[in-house]
Amino acid sequence: MDETALRDLALSYAARYATTGAKLEGYLARKIRERGVAENEDGRAVELDVTGMVTRLIELGYVDDDAYARARSRDLTARGYGKRRVEQALWAAGVDEEVRGAHAPGEADSRRAAILLARKRGFGVFGNRIDPAAAAEIQRAAKEKQIAAMLRAGHDFEHARFILGANRVSDIEEWLAEAEEDEAEDKRDGSW
User: Which parts of the chain have pLDDT scores under 70?
Assistant: First the structure.
């Protein structure tokens, strides 16, 4: 593989996939390992500057970690994943800590995602998967499984406990509205 082939691979990858600089660099390093490096006229391996190429694509705007983090965070919360799971996905993609923090879901988004997961999976008041006539031990085990599923999806324990302990959907909706009002108030206080 020579500089031209590497550049073509990098451009093709950046055009097809939303990616980060770290992911692109890893992809190009893997391709070099798989295909090998071209030799010049005197039989020496050609030096390929993968980091420089990725830096150039970032400068040109083909690769944007901030845009990737924003889109990935929005996508994961819209699918019902919590803050911790979003941060793990961004960390795995090589997004730096400052950008991860800037795009981590806020309290209202975290609550909204937890509610979405509970609705989708039929947890708590959103489903009747725990038989009220069952023995207390069976009910407790079922509730523990639901809490564990919410924790694996990256939600805070307090959020899972509140949603699964709520007696009415309206209690959960009020809980969400409270967080939305707090965030709106914080935005008003922070503006001129």
Answer: 40-41, 43, 128-132, 190-192
Does residue 176 share a domain with residue 115?
yes
E strands, 140-181, are none
Candidates 52, 54, 72; CA nearest to 62 is 54
Task: Look up the pTM and report it.
Answer: 0.82
**How many CA atoms are closer than 13 Å to the CA of 138, on its beta-carbon side?**
7
Angstrom CA distances, 11 to 8, 54, 156, stand at 5, 10, 39
Q: Are residues 95 and 149 in the same domain?
A: no
The boundaries of the domain holding residue 135 are 106-192
Do 21 and 98 sit in the same domain of this protein?
A: no
Across-strand partners of 45?
Answer: 39
Per-residue model confidence as pLDDT tens digits over 56-110? 999 999 999 999 999 999 999 999 999 999 999 999 999 999 999 999 999 999 9
**Domain identity same for 138 and 177:** yes
- Same domain (yes/no): 114, 101: no
